[in-house]
Design a protein that fits this description.
Elements: H1 2-21, E1 25-29, H2 32-45, E2 50-53, H3 58-71, E3 74-76, H4 84-90, E4 93-97, E5 100-102, E6 107-112, H5 115-119, E7 126-132, E8 136-137, H6 144-151, E9 157-161, E10 166-168, E11 174-176, E12 183-189
Parallel strand pairs: 1-12, 2-3, 2-4, 4-7, 5-8, 7-12
Antiparallel strand pairs: 5-6, 6-9, 10-11
Length: about 190
């Protein structure tokens, strides 16, 4: 068992180093309270006033929504919104859960089956993704089963996220946050 724990810790360190080298932030959470509070603190630091939450584990979502309300954030979930895509265009932050993370490339892997899920990580300027430690993979080729499962649905979209969005302008200068989130936080859920 000790060898397996060391292997995961090694993967976690590689993922953190790579994701942070690409401009993202990584925090490790040991339980649901710490996971929720880590996300809330990040949104407070980024001065978010509104957030759209989707596909977050229920045990975290309850604490998360309570704490976000306490902070005074306006919360949207898509369940009661007439046009959730237009809401996504207006909110400051999005929070969801990634299907996996790839250590060697510092990448979050997401798959979505509708526009709301797909746009949640790309329209708001701030994005928080929860990722289960058990879904931390060493390299891209290990995503094969995730990709196969996602592709069984005709409307699925798979997205690979490596930190904030970036774009190179005509002078070949790399700019962060041009066509997507300026700030991205990956919260690794160590108990899952």
């Amino acid at each position: 068992m000790v060898g397996w724990v060391w292997f995961l810790d090694g993967l976690l360190n590689v993922f953190r180093d790579r994701f942070e080298s690409l401009g993202g932030e990584v925090e490790i959470a040991k339980d649901r309270e710490e996971a929720a509070l880590t996300a809330v603190l990040f949104l407070r630091q980024k001065q978010a006033g509104s957030v759209f939450i989707s596909a977050v584990p229920a045990e975290i979502e309850r604490i998360l929504t309570t704490e976000l309300r306490r902070e005074g954030l306006v919360i949207f979930t898509g369940q009661n919104e007439l046009n959730p895509v237009s809401v996504l265009k207006q909110v400051d932050a999005g929070i969801s859960t990634s299907a996996a993370a790839i250590a060697n490339t510092g990448t979050l892997v997401e798959y979505a089956f509708d526009d709301v899920e797909r746009l949640l990580s790309s329209l708001p300027k701030i994005y928080v993704s929860f990722v289960k430690r058990s879904k931390l993979l060493r390299e891209v080729r290990e995503t094969e089963s995730i990709l196969r499962a996602a592709m069984e649905h005709p409307t699925s979209v798979v997205t690979f996220i490596s930190g904030p969005s970036r774009s190179g302008d005509i002078e070949q200068r790399l700019m962060l946050g041009i066509h997507g989130p300026h700030s991205v936080l990956a919260v690794v859920l160590t108990w899952m």
